[in-house]
């Protein structure tokens, strides 16, 4: 249990030959732990075992696909057709891509980062009002992934806000509500354009995915991840390898690297160094709906010992009541049978978010 684990006294020894120890109390966030004076060694509960034989992550920034949103939504059939083909390749071969010329003002994206950072700078008592209790609480503030189930804690604090179909927002910081409301609306428009293109790239009518999965009332969750500097980054993990539960996830960050994606069995470092762009990854419900044509991408977050990384994620999924299964038009008897069983999105969300997070094991449970 988070409280019983983190409210107990942790003892740290600055060196092997020094018997001075420091007691840290009320550490219910990584941020508070990281800001503790003289912190040199992380508590054992944060020690994450990496595969010692795993090679270093690769840097292949230029290889990551880039989708021009204006071409994808263009009235010019040639431009749009080419963009749809590029989107198909990005979803099929990568499950990950950048989006440029999306129409969301850069000033708004910077303001979202700024206000998100201000939230974590609030006094502890202001943040604790939103301490997580239930999976679908409109606003949840917490640490690790699922602190009630995690054996190893992750070097991450988070804020999760449901912004659609009903909009919610913390009362503080000042101005956060207006910024978040506008950002959630703008990002939904980007997702709508991407989903139309994906629907066409699958050989379906452009509104097929939207209508079948009831995206007008689709779940949209705004997530801010805070990864403070870690004195032993080689022993900790910000977030372990996993795939996302929804359809598409949009991400921006404060310029500090740490995101890695798995591509053809190898881990790649990802930098969001393209100005005013979104990083987008495909998620589990898209893999199910496409009957495996598009794979949800496995990704993780690593930490460093010098800089705080802040990432802002917008997770977009079907309606909670939608039953997600391979699109009937993509299934063809024995030639192309359904590869996943039908499941209500709400049930899938509870299954993934209510347990430990380990790779794509949740998706494996619905495979035929």
From TrEMBL:
Family matches, as Gene3D superfamilies: B-lactam Antibiotic, Isopenicillin N Synthase, Chain
InterPro entries registered for this protein in UniProt: DIOX_N, IPNS-like_FE2OG_OXY, IPNS-like_sf, Oxoglu/Fe-dep_dioxygenase_dom, Plant_2OG-oxidoreductases
Pfam families assigned: 2OG-FeII_Oxy (PF03171), DIOX_N (PF14226)
MF annotations from Gene Ontology: metal ion binding; oxidoreductase activity, acting on paired donors, with incorporation or reduction of molecular oxygen
Keyword presence, Cell cycle: no
Domain Fe2OG dioxygenase stretches: 217-318
Sorted UniProt keywords: Iron, Metal-binding, Oxidoreductase
Protein family per UniProt: Belongs to the iron/ascorbate-dependent oxidoreductase family.
Designated name of the protein: Fe2OG dioxygenase domain-containing protein
Species this protein is from: Tagetes erecta (African marigold)
